[in-house]
Amino acid sequence: MKWIDISMPLNNATPPWPGDEPFHYSLTYSMDETGSVNIGQFRASNHIGTHVDAPFHYDSEGKKIADLPVERFTGKALVLAMENQPTITREDLQHINFQSVSKVLFKTNSWNDRTSFPDHYTVIGEGAASYLSSQGINMIGMDTPSVDPETSKDLPGHHSLYKHDILILEGIQLSHVSPGTYELMAFPLKMEQADGSPVRAVLREI
To answer: How far apart are CA 93 and CA 53, in angstroms?
Structure first.
């Protein structure tokens, strides 16, 4: 059994969404101070690095992260190569066999330098969500910071996926993963008031 980590590392240099809270870790108390243990703390946006969005992120009446069933964050996932295109459309997906999977992870390779926020990256077209839903997909993952452009205010990708009850996993790393079918696990923290959560996303070969 082989496990593949597809999460971004979190450290004080992890690039946040522009203007959002960066990740910061520090020691609250050292072993020298306590005599027995190191105790640390961190501060960050809920959307730092590899993370999932809760509907509350883009709908004030939407479910928060702890409201979402835990089983939604695991299942068979198809990794698809979708390189060199600005938008993933319905037409890009119609020749794909989604039988036996409930998640799809898009390998766009449009965010290669993870030390800085990208100027441009692949996003999801509005028509893609309805087609993915018709194929039984209930979560998508992107190797980009978002399913929408950084400058978008109406968030068509987010809202089209939300309309079809498709959860959103963003910031995964797939450059070392071959296209194919895997088992995905990407569990969020059980934060009752949160609009999203960092996750440790992993794939298992099947």
So the answer is: 23
Compute the half-sphere exposure of residue 15: CA atoms within 13 Å on the CB side of its CA.
14
Alpha helices (H) in 99-180, listed in sequence order: 126-134, 156-163
Is position 57 annotated as part of the catalytic site? yes
Point out the catalytic residue in the list 24, 47, 51, 57.
Answer: 57
CATH of domain 46-205: 3.50.30.50
Domain residue spans of the chain? 11-45, 46-205
Residue 36: pLDDT band with limits 50, 70, 90:
very high
Distance between CA atoms of residues 90 and 185, nearest Å: 26
- Is the pLDDT score of 13 beyond 90? yes
Residue 126 pLDDT greater than 90, yes or no: no
Please state, in angstroms and rounded to a whole number, the distance separating the CA atoms of residues 46 and 62: 16
pLDDT of the residue at 123: 98
